[in-house]
Amino acid sequence: MDDVYVELAQMYDKFGISDFSVSFGDSMLKYFDCMYPNETFKKNLDICCGTGTLCGFFKDDGIQTKGVDLSAEMLDVARSKYCDVEFIKCNASEFNDGEVYDFITCTDDALNHITDIEDVKRIVKNANVLLRDGGLFIFDINNFDILTPGEYNKDSFNGYSKLSLVQSRDSDLIKTDVKYYEHDKLIWQKSLFERDYSISKLTQIFNREGFVLDSCSQHFLDEKRSEKWKLIFKKVE
Ligand SMILES: C[S@@+](CC[C@H](N)C(=O)[O-])C[C@H]1O[C@@H](n2cnc3c(N)ncnc32)[C@H](O)[C@@H]1O
User: Fold this and answer.
1) Each residue of 89-111: pLDDT tens digit?
2) Is the pTM of this model over 0.90?
3) C-alpha span between 198 and 48 (Å, rounded)
4) Which of 20, 79, 175, 185 is the most exposed place for a label (fewest CB within 10 A)?
């Protein structure tokens, strides 16, 4: 796991990085209503939950939710925001609390950040154990075909801070150099890595572990087209 989260945890929400998970979460609820009007999706496990923003969103909607992440620093932030949600420090490929979930979520290209495909396979295998029959695994991956490597800056939240993200690509590995500045002075810098996974490769992995593709779209329902692929796999009954 990238150790960038040690520093990034405190500013993750302030730079609006976790906002995406809420808009995606909102689309998920609409998707349930539209595609599964007679089914219940009231028990969620959010893996790679980061600062817990999606869990908070689900909790406010009356959904029972739990978050799992490997970063102690991200989980500290999550717990400080939502004291009534359980957040567990665990590898998503190993988590098993004996509960059965209606849907598992994994947002903001968290799967791309798991750069060893064997780890992705272990996560999918474990999801099959955790989900009920007909349960859904919902996630997004980056569409690196339309994300051109280069520099991206995140707006300051306090007038003097800046997060600069410079991406470069070597085959299917994408490196992002993250630099944090205050008053134009470099405070820290770290690199994080993502793997470009094709939809066909992921579909193969999910199929092998007992899932079928339920939805794959760049614009979920009536959303605007985005640089992310949003995917839903359903555990076969
Ligand atoms: C890009 S962040 C996404 C956070 C959150 N899902 C969101 O939408 O804001 C990726 C998160 O995955 C976590 N992570 C990476 N590998 C993991 C693993 N094997 N098991 C659990 N969490 C992991 C990191 O600690 C980090 O918090």
Assistant:
1) 999 999 999 999 999 999 999 99
2) yes
3) 20
4) 185
